[in-house]
């Protein structure tokens, strides 16, 4: 299948208030701010301890882009180049035209619709430029911020994996699978 995304030029995406740009090695200190925050990392991997880990992650994600396996963006606010979030389309299965989304945002930017805007920009890119037919998301079922975000963009819950993940509090949490098909996708109201 011919490739639809031109990997020679990194795809910069924009929303009303956000710019999704290429993740750079210089973003390590900013990425560390939220990846070391236990509240942000509550349903994810262990909080980072050192900036070096952020640098390693950035290197890894840039390699995945070069290998044309995934696209990760640094989320910034228009007019301010500092990274405040990491959003990505991963597990890209070209033949099946599907990919998975991942997202996290610095805590002091929660509750303002920034993630909604960023995810919407990424979905538009996925459904048009990458020609995806399906985008899926895996989230802990009681990660309410994440679930609300997915529902706001039209994702539907398709399944539940019971006791999927052992959390810091020593209890098992269910994992939920969400999916959004191209024909059900409506760009968020602001973008329509
Ligand atoms: C998941 C995550 C990115 C969601 O962030 P968020 O700030 O809740 O999402 P949004 O930026 O879209 O903001 C939505 C909230 O802003 C409010 N809001 C304000 N202005 C808004 C606007 N213009 N558009 C949409 N929502 C707006 C909404 O009412 C909503 O509030 P609510 O949560 O009380 O219902 C964030 O919780 C996070 O980083 N969590 C940690 C990482 C994580 O768990 N990632 C998922 C792993 S699977």
What does this structure look like?
This protein is α+β, with helices and mostly antiparallel strands. It has one domain: 3-Layer(aba) Sandwich (Aminopeptidase). The chain is built from 4 helices and 8 strands. It has helices at 28-35, 51-66, 114-128, 144-152, and strands at residues 13-14, 18-22, 71-77, 80-93, 98-105, 134-140, 156-166, 172-181. Strands 1-2-3-4-5-6-8-7 form an 8-stranded mixed beta sheet, sandwiched between helices. α1 (28-35) crosses α2 (51-66). The longest helix is centred in the N-terminal third of the chain and has 16 residues, at 51-66. It is globular and about 45 Å long. The two termini are 31 Å apart. The mean pLDDT is 94. Bound molecules: coenzyme A. Coenzyme A binds at residues 40, 43-44, 103-105, 110-116, 139, 143, 145-146, 148-149.
List keywords for this structure.
about 190 residues, alpha+beta, Aminopeptidase, 8-stranded mixed beta sheet, 4 helices, 8 strands, binds coenzyme A
């Amino acid at each position: 299948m011919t490739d639809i995304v031109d990997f020679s030029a990194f795809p910069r995406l924009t929303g009303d208030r956000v710019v999704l740009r290429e993740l750079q090695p210089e973003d390590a200190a900013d990425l560390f701010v939220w990846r070391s925050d236990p509240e942000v990392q509550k349903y994810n991997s262990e909080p980072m301890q050192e900036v070096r880990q952020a640098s390693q992650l950035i290197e890894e994600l840039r390699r995945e882009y070069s290998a044309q396996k995934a696209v990760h963006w640094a989320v910034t606010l228009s007019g301010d180049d500092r990274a405040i979030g990491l959003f990505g389309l991963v597990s890209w299965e070209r033949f099946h035209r599907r990919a998975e989304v991942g997202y996290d945002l610095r805590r002091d930017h929660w509750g303002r619709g920034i993630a909604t805007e960023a995810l919407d920009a990424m979905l538009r890119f996925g459904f048009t430029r990458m020609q995806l037919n399906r985008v899926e998301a895996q989230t802990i079922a009681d990660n309410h911020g994440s679930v609300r975000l997915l529902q706001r963009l039209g994702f539907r819950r398709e399944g539940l994996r019971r006791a999927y993940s052992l959390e810091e509090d020593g209890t098992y949490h269910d994992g939920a699978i969400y999916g959004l098909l191209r024909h059900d996708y409506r760009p968020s109201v602001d973008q329509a």
